[in-house]
Design a protein that fits this description.
The chain is built from 15 helices and twelve strands. The protein is α/β, with parallel strands linked by helices and 484 residues long. It has three domains: 2-136, no CATH class; 157-260, NAD(P)-binding Rossmann-like Domain (Rossmann fold), CATH 3.40.50.720; 287-480, no CATH class. A six-stranded mixed β-sheet has the order 3-4-2-1-5-6, sandwiched between helices. Strands 7-8 form a two-stranded antiparallel ribbon. The longest helix is centred in the middle third of the chain and has 35 residues, at 287-321.
């Protein structure tokens, strides 16, 4: 927080101060709209009282989760996510207020107000981000938001020169990127490299020399930016180039070329106010992932309410057709290997685990998984429940708790994960799910390695549309009884 305060500018302070009145005005509009919809007159004193409460709540929320994000760069998703969190806290505050002062507040009024308020509060966030990104290229060098890598309209193409430290693969990628983006007005004029010697060039960009010529080149030429692109073995030597550029006032651009990622995508996050590059094979938090989590919880809650009579009848059927409990809980590994209890209807005899050792020779699945078509441990009712995937329905509780998602790789047993190859363990990068590509693509007719590849295909190509398609394909698969 001290770091953030140190770099706070008058412009930022003015923007933060102006944010609170705007929120209060929008909240007042939302109150008036909700009152008019339900044909109830809202007295002026009540409006002032509600706005005062709004100001207090937003002040507390602002100090808790808004200040740190306003004092550092944040993308639309982060701002929207914080706004939604604020609305949840605001709703709780309104309910507490209505209870304490015994103000009659119907559910319809509250929901209407929160819908309008959430929409109105997020519109300025979206507009501010959109306008801010549109104006970023118009800022002058003296502006705190100036981006050295944005095209400078006031100078010609030849006046923007760049040096590239590193003549290896990383340096070549910098030159290729600049050459393949003609809208950029930055032209590489040469490579600086401590390992390569003699006459050499790449895409007409020559090797100028080593660090012994760096100062002279900067003094005699216009150098607008230094691209740091050393190979891993030359990271230590690159410190001298960075220090000289810093002393001579040359902007330095460091690209994330330290690790050559073949699977992970790289995105910018902030750690304690400091920028950090994060390599991840799963999608970073965004509006889409927030929507996925929201749909998971809402759909699970609605589904459990709708099918609760069916769940109760199934539980009674399991209980009275075989000895043992109606439900079966088992430890599985979730996202990043976090253990949790998965819930299912019991479809096997109570001594199933003890009998499993003697049946290992009949395993029909490759890899660490155990699958047997005519498994003697499965009860008669259990065969029916498995055929139509009814035994998996209690996992909606896992989705409601947040351990699982509606769509995602099936959760694995700890002993199975212990035998995974390193590339197979990547399926734990996301939350497990009730259904995935494997379930709708043949399931037991697919061997273990292809199953893992399908899970990774889902992770690498995830989108809300892909989830929707998998859910749409799951229903007919379950009804046909081919999902077991």
């Amino acid at each position: 927080m001290e770091h953030a305060r140190k770099h706070t500018t008058p412009r930022q302070l003015a923007r933060m101060i102006s944010g609170a009145p705007l929120r209060l005005i929008l909240a007042g509009v939302a109150l008036s709209l909700s009152a008019s919809i339900w044909s109830q007159e809202l007295r002026f004193s009540e409006l002032v009282e509600m706005l005062a409460l709004t100001g207090l709540l937003y002040g507390l929320i602002y100090l808790q989760c808004g200040l740190r994000d306003r004092l550092r760069p944040a993308d639309d998703a982060v701002l929207l996510l914080n706004n939604l969190k604020s609305e949840i806290k605001f709703a709780l505050g309104i309910l507490a207020y209505a209870f304490i002062v015994e103000t009659p507040l119907s559910k319809s009024e509250l929901i209407t107000f929160l819908v309008f308020n959430t929409a109105l509060q997020n519109i300025p966030v979206i507009l501010r981000q959109w306008i801010g990104s549109a104006n970023s290229r118009k800022l002058s060098i003296g502006d705190p938001g100036f981006n050295i890598l944005q095209p400078a309209k006031s100078v010609s193409l030849a006046e923007r020169k760049a040096l590239v430290y590193g003549a290896g693969d990383n340096g070549k990628r910098v030159v290729e990127t600049l050459a393949e983006n003609p809208q950029s007005d930055i032209t590489p004029v040469g490579f600086i490299d401590c390992q390569r010697k003699g006459l050499w060039s790449y895409r007409d960009v020559p090797l100028i020399g080593g660090m012994d010529k760096f100062e002279r080149i900067v003094l005699e030429s216009q150098v607008d930016v230094l691209f740091m692109a050393p190979e891993p073995e030359d990271l230590q030597g690159s410190h001298k180039a960075f220090e000289l550029a810093e002393k001579m006032g040359v902007p330095v651009c460091v690209l994330p070329h330290v690790y050559h990622s073949k699977i992970c995508s790289c995105h910018l996050e902030h750690f304690n106010g400091q920028p950090a590059l994060v390599y991840s094979s799963s999608k970073p938090k965004s509006a889409a992932t927030l929507l996925k989590e929201t749909v998971d919880r809402v759909a699970a809650a609605v589904g459990l309410i709708v099918i609760s009579p069916f769940l109760a009848l199934t539980a009674l059927a399991v209980k009275f057709t075989s000895k043992g409990p109606a439900f079966f809980a088992q430890t599985r590994l979730g996202q990043n290997g976090a253990p949790f209890q998965v819930y299912k209807f019991r479809t096997m005899t109570t001594d199933a685990e003890e009998k499993k050792t003697s049946l290992q020779g009949h395993n029909e699945m490759s890899g660490p998984m155990f699958k047997m078509k005519n498994d003697p441990r499965i009860t008669p009712l259990g065969k029916v429940l498995r055929k139509y995937s009814v035994d998996e329905l209690p996992q909606l509780f896992n989705v409601l708790k947040g351990d699982m998602s509606l769509v995602g790789p099936r959760p694995a047993l700890p002993k199975e994960v212990a035998e995974f190859a390193p590339w197979q363990r990547r399926k734990l990068a996301v939350k497990p799910g009730l259904t995935c590509i494997w379930q709708v693509s043949g399931r037991n007719n697919i061997d273990f390695e292809d199953w893992m590849k399908l899970d990774l295909e889902y992770i690498d190509n995830w989108s809300l549309w892909l989830d929707a398609k998998i859910i749409a394909r799951t229903a007919p698969t379950v009804l046909k009884g081919t999902g077991c």
